[in-house]
Design brief:
By secondary structure, this protein is of the alpha/beta class. Among the domains are: 85 residues, no CATH class; 155 residues, Rossmann fold; 158 residues, P-loop containing nucleotide triphosphate hydrolases (Rossmann fold, 3-Layer(aba) Sandwich), CATH 3.40.50.300. The chain is 42% helix and 13% strand. The chain contains 19 helices and 15 strands. Helix 9 links the parallel strand 5 and strand 6. The longest helix is centred in the N-terminal third of the chain and has 30 residues. It is globular. It starts with a strand and ends in a 10-residue tail after the last helix.
Length: 573
């Protein structure tokens, strides 16, 4: 065997492994393992070392699974599986062995997840007297009817809030499906019980918009709302802190500033975290510690594939909103090659002439010497002077002062600003129903999730909306695939599944959680069905005897299962 490469139009190899001819060849005609090497080591040397290590260690290796479960799933002993992974009789045998090891790894992982979920399910010290009068009052004031999914999720959350066990729930749904309204309805159930709610968002822009929308809906009901961010300082911050501690604020919206030690609640009963993937686990816990067993509702507009939901969020209950509000039309997506922007500009102009509004999004804030990529600041000047002269435009990005950013957003929301030029800072939270065009320049530089979120900024009204994805000339195969997916579907759940296969679970979850799912054997893209199987088996074992899942009780679990004889721990098995 050897590594081949093409040189001068011919296949060449300079590192053959040779074996002298014999009647009983050691390696010829067999499946051989290929290990990563470093200087001075050869495959033959590593194979000898691994063979010796397996011979020494495998006789004492015990399974971490209950024997009855091993029999029910017809799993090979771990020693046999490990040997078959390194020195298999055939490639199918190697895959079967890896699947057996992956199943055990996933089973142990799911046991840990269930242990954690049970630890979170401790009975809270206080009980609530159910009171839905505020929630029902808001529903009665709405000019529309909740979708079936929204109504079902509200009921699920209500049951959690009246339960003696603190809520730990993930609410997922596509962009524009109405998750924020469901969250606001949930806060009213807690506020009616004389408790407070905190609504956490990753950016000041998003937190402020949530606060403004909530004020329009909830203040007529007597709900006292406040907003807190790092830019709120001095006397205003001191007055807000005092009111919060005294219970004079019912619902507080904010950014990371809510983590600050000087922020104290009178009686925090519910914590809502929007775009939860932007926050780490420790940050969420920091807010929860500001109350006595408060309920937790996480929200994400990036639908999560089931395999990820059962791993990264396996200790949470998951609610899903799939249906969109009545009257929404799917956004029509067009792809345009760089150099054909004039066609896009003309098409957007047609919409602007109808009184509509548009977004233009760029990957960079300002011009870069090292990258030949359009930037927001240069593009803003070009659009203002040459493309749409005479029309009111505004520019926002992370370096724009907060006061100017607020002014620009207020102008766009009111319709005075016709074109909003930005970076991906508008990816989440911006909700202007009159905006019907989203232009993303250098779309190949954005991930699928970001492209889908940006596209979700339009199509929020009854008018037909459009997304124009302008791409550069040098596309990678992955870039081509992303653009094709965006063209083919607007279903966020389908996009999430494709994104998982393109990027893997770590990147899809975000930087803060990228190391969470680094399994040693299992691969979620390959072993997804095994994960579901392992979770069902772990839940069945817990149902059979909860004491078997206590940490450190593996030996007890094996012994108890052995006493059960051939009876399967799998429900229906």
């Amino acid at each position: 065997m050897g590594s081949f490469r093409t040189r001068r139009g011919e296949l060449q190899c300079s590192d053959f492994e040779l074996e002298p001819w014999s009647e009983r060849p050691a390696g010829f005609g067999k499946v051989l393992p290929v290990y990563p090497l470093t200087e001075g080591l050869t495959q033959a040397a590593i194979r000898r070392i691994m063979s010796h290590a397996l011979s020494e260690s495998l006789p004492s290796l015990e399974s971490g699974l209950p024997p009855a479960l091993v029999r029910s799933r017809k799993l090979p002993p771990p020693a046999a599986a490990l040997r078959a992974v390194h020195f298999p009789e055939s490639l199918p045998a190697a895959e079967e062995a890896r699947a057996a090891l992956a199943y055990e790894e996933l089973f142990q992982f799911e046991l840990a997840v269930l242990r954690r979920k049970r630890s979170l399910a401790a009975t809270r010290a206080r009980t609530r007297t159910p009171d839905a009068h505020l929630r029902d009052a808001l529903v009665g004031r709405l000019p529309f009817i909740l979708t079936k999914d929204q109504a079902e999720v509200v009921s699920e959350i209500e049951a959690d809030l009246w339960s003696p066990i603190p809520m730990a729930r993930l609410l997922q749904g596509d962009v524009g499906c109405g998750k924020t309204l469901v969250a606001l309805l949930s806060t009213l159930l807690v506020i009616a019980c004389a408790e407070q709610a905190a609504f956490l968002a990753p950016t000041e822009l998003l937190a402020r918009q949530h606060a403004e929308n909530a004020a329009r809906l909830l203040e007529p009901l007597g709900v006292r709302i406040a907003f807190l961010s790092g830019s709120v300082i001095g006397e205003p911050r001191a007055l807000l802190r005092a009111a919060l501690a005294a219970g004079e604020i019912d619902l507080l919206f904010g950014t990371h500033a809510l983590f600050s030690e000087d922020v104290t609640f009178h009686d925090l009963g519910l914590v809502i975290v929007d775009e939860q993937h932007r926050f780490g686990v420790l940050q969420r816990q920091a807010v929860l510690k500001k109350g006595q067993d408060p309920d937790l509702l996480l929200m994400t507009a990036t639908p999560i594939p089931r395999t990820l939901a059962l791993t990264a969020f396996g200790d949470l209950d998951v609610s899903t909103i799939r249906t969109m509000p009545a009257g929404r039309r799917p956004v029509i997506t067009h792809l345009a090659r760089e150099g054909n922007e004039e066609k896009v500009y003309r098409r957007v102009r047609e919409e602007l002439d109808k009184g509509r509004q548009a977004y233009f999004v760029y990957p960079l804030i300002e011009e870069s010497e090292s990258l030949s990529v359009k930037d927001a600041e240069t593009a803003f000047r070009t659009l203002q002077k040459s493309v749409y002269p005479g029309l009111p435009l505004a520019l926002i990005h992370s370096r724009v002062p907060e006061e100017d950013k607020e002014k620009a957003m207020a102008g766009f929301a009111s319709g005075k600003v016709k074109v909003l030029v930005a970076t991906s800072v508008v990816e989440v939270g911006v909700d202007v129903s009159n905006a019907t065009c989203m232009v993303v320049e250098h779309a190949e530089r954005f991930g699928l999730s970001t492209l889908h979120q940006l596209r979700g900024r339009v199509g929020r009204g009854s008018d037909q909306s459009y997304a124009f994805l302008v791409y550069g000339g040098k596309l990678t195969p992955e870039g081509i695939e992303r653009l094709k997916i965006m063209k083919e579907t607007s279903d966020g759940f389908a996009i999430a599944e494709r994104d998982l296969r393109l990027r893997g679970p770590g990147e899809l979850l975000g930087v803060r959680q990228s190391g969470f799912l680094n399994f040693r054997v299992a691969n979620l893209l390959v072993h997804g069905p095994l994960l579901l199987q392992a979770r069902d088996d772990a839940k069945a074992l817990l149902k059979r005897d909860p004491g078997l899942l206590e940490p450190g009780n593996a030996a007890v679990a094996r012994a108890a299962s052995e006493e059960a004889g051939a009876q399967s721990v799998i429900e229906g098995g």
